[in-house]
Amino acid sequence: MAAPGLRPGLGRLFEMPAALGRVRRAYGTSQAFAEVLRLPKKQLTKLVFPLQELERHLVPDSKHEFHLKIFDPSLEDIARAESIFTATAQNRIEYLSSAERLDHAPALPRPEVCFIGRSNVGKSSLIKALFSLAPDVEVRVSKKPGHTKKMNFFKVGKYFTLVDMPGYGYRAPEDFVDMVETYLKERKNLMRTFLLVDSVVGIQKTDNIAVEMCEEFALPYVMVLTKIDKSSKGHLLKQVLQIQKFVDTKTQGCFPQLFPVSAVTYSGIHLLRCFIADITGNLKTHCFQFS
Ligand code: GDP
User: Fold this and answer.
1) Which amino acid residue places its CA nearest to atom 19 of ligand 1?
2) How far is the CA of 121 from the centre of ligand 1 (A)?
3) What's the gap in Å between 284 CA and the centre of ligand 1?
4) Tens of pLDDT along 177-235?
5) Which residue, of 32, 38, 123, 238, has the fewest CB within 10 Å?
6) From the CA atom positions of the chain, what is the Rg in Å?
7) Residues lining ligand 1, Cβ inside 6 A
8) Distance of CA 3 to CAs 17, 82, 148, Å?
9) How far is the CA of 188 from the centre of ligand 1 (A)?
10) Ligand 1 closest atom vs CA 262
11) Above 70 in pLDDT, residue 15?
12) Are 69 and 59 in contact (CB under 8 A)?
């Protein structure tokens, strides 16, 4: 029997050491993820399912506050997503082009996801971490706030396009609104917007620009909480609870489950890759209660 409270996929895997071999054989699991699968249970949970790890520190009465089961892939699903993000001769992952306006954006048929967030929220670092299995991809990290003024398009094999949007906050909203609003409103193949919030400081006034925009255009979006390695567990839990409450009470289009990540420890990165692969129609995990 699986340990109480352990997600079914995870429980099965820990019971049967042979299952590890199966995941690797069946999905050609990358070396990096094969190493993740060898981690002790607690470390694996912390790395792959950081929200679940945080939930353990909640008092029993408030356990329902995190919506952990909405996107609840198995490790097999996550392994499949890793292969989508792994660059090979057949699966080319590369920077395509940049654009200052939507009418300069490349016309691409594939599903698209975009990443938006305040300058310094950790957007470049997160995109770099997502592309760590494609080390040749160059993600420019700007040192000056507000420096990224263009939308940068990255192709992920035959699967989808990832768009890095300019940061907002400093010297925005003018730049941000002009360029980004049109993109968000009119880009036909945009499947999901990932809105980054710094987990150390929580939702700031400037973050509301992006929230309001997503809400106004009725876009489906997801909140990603960056830099989770920086805070104590207590502080992080407090922030996550506050942000969860905001999402539950103040938003319509935001996906209810939060995605905490760290570009330093890679916590949450595998799960986010799996979510992106799934919502762009490339995995079909059937994990969603709704999408
Ligand atoms: P951007 O302006 O949103 O692209 O932000 P960057 O990715 O350039 O990150 C801003 C600063 O935060 C840099 O000093 C990064 O090293 C730091 N940073 C980004 N992500 C993380 C993270 O996950 N953990 C920690 N500790 N620092 C981070």
Assistant:
1) 122
2) 6
3) 32
4) 778 889 999 999 999 999 999 999 999 988 998 899 999 999 999 999 999 999 999 99
5) 38
6) 18
7) 117, 119-125, 141, 167, 226-227, 229-230, 262-264
8) 15, 26, 47
9) 30
10) 23
11) no
12) no
Distance CA 225, CA 263 (A): 11
Looking at the whole model, is its pTM more than 0.85? Answer: yes
Which residue matches tokens 């209810």? 256
Cα 238 to the chain's mean position, in Å? Answer: 21
**CA of residue 153 to ligand 1 center, whole Å:** 20
pLDDT for res 145: 55
Q: How far is CA 222 from CA 13, 101, 152, 235, 275, in A?
A: 28, 23, 20, 22, 10
Mean pLDDT of the chain: 85
Asked if residues 99 and 105 have their Cβ atoms less than 8 Å apart, the reply is: yes
Whether the CB-CB separation of 224 and 261 falls below 8 Å is answered with: yes
Nearest to 223 by CA among 1, 67, 102: 67
Select from 266, 1, 291 the least CA-distant residue to 131. Answer: 266
The ligand 1 atom nearest the CA atom of 143: 8
